[in-house]
């Protein structure tokens, strides 16, 4: 399941949906949050924009790649759009699988691709009222490179 939405989500509700099948032996979840500092600058909010239609297709391809690489029983990706405040949830990635190794690897793979390849435009607003668009960080690109071997 892939969802783009402005409203918040419940980690517990999404986790509960992933663990309903009796064949599930592991569930790994990740949630990214808006933090108050990024690259040494104080942050007051984060705005995420996207291109409807293109973004959903891109996310579906990322999930398909993960399903090809690992034994995944179920997968949920939720990404919020619009203006988010400090401590708001931005993204949820949940993986259900037979074994923890597949769940951990698939979850990490998906979030690495979301951070670098998914067509989202991110604008941070600083506490001094300045705002700026963000590019993928070098550390995120380095993480991605391990999947392209």
Structure description:
It is a single chain. This protein is of the alpha+beta class. The chain has one domain: Aldehyde Oxidoreductase, domain 3 (Alpha-Beta Complex), CATH 3.90.1170.40. The chain contains four helices and nine strands. It has helices spanning 11-18, 54-69, 100-116, 138-145; strands at 2-5, 26-33, 37-38, 41-50, 72-80, 82-85, 89-97, 120-126, 131-134. Strands 3, 4, 6, 8 and 9 form a five-stranded antiparallel beta sheet that branches. Helix 2 (54-69) packs antiparallel against helix 3 and helix 3 (100-116) crosses helix 4. The longest helix is centred in the last third of the chain and has 17 residues, at 100-116. The radius of gyration is 16 Å and the shape is globular. It starts with a strand and ends with a helix. The model has no long low-confidence stretch (mean pLDDT 91).
Salient structural properties:
9 strands; 38% strand; globular; five-stranded antiparallel β-sheet; single chain; Aldehyde Oxidoreductase, domain 3; 149 residues; alpha+beta
H/I helix tally:
4
Which structural class should the secondary elements be placed in?
Answer: alpha+beta
Low-confidence stretches: none
Q: Helicity range of the residues? A: 25-40%
How would you characterize the largest beta sheet?
A: 5 strands, antiparallel
Percent strand: 35-45%
What is the number of beta strands? 9
Shape: globular
CATH superfamily: Molybdopterin biosynthesis MoaE subunit
Q: Mean pLDDT, nearest integer?
A: 91
């Amino acid at each position: 399941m892939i969802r783009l939405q402005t409203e918040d989500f419940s980690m517990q509700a999404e986790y509960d949906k992933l663990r309903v099948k009796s064949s599930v032996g592991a569930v790994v979840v990740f949630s990214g949050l808006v933090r108050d500092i990024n690259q040494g600058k104080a942050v007051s909010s984060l705005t995420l924009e996207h291109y409807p239609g293109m973004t959903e297709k891109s996310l579906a391809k990322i999930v398909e790649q993960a399903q090809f690489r690992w034994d995944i029983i179920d997968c949920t990706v939720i990404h919020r759009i619009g203006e988010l405040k400090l401590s708001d949830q931005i993204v949820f990635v949940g993986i259900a699988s037979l074994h923890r190794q597949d769940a951990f690897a698939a979850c990490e793979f998906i979030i690495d691709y979301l951070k670098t390849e998914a067509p989202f435009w991110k604008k941070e607003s600083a506490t001094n009222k300045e705002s700026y668009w963000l590019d993928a960080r070098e550390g995120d690109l380095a993480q991605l490179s391990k999947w392209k071997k």
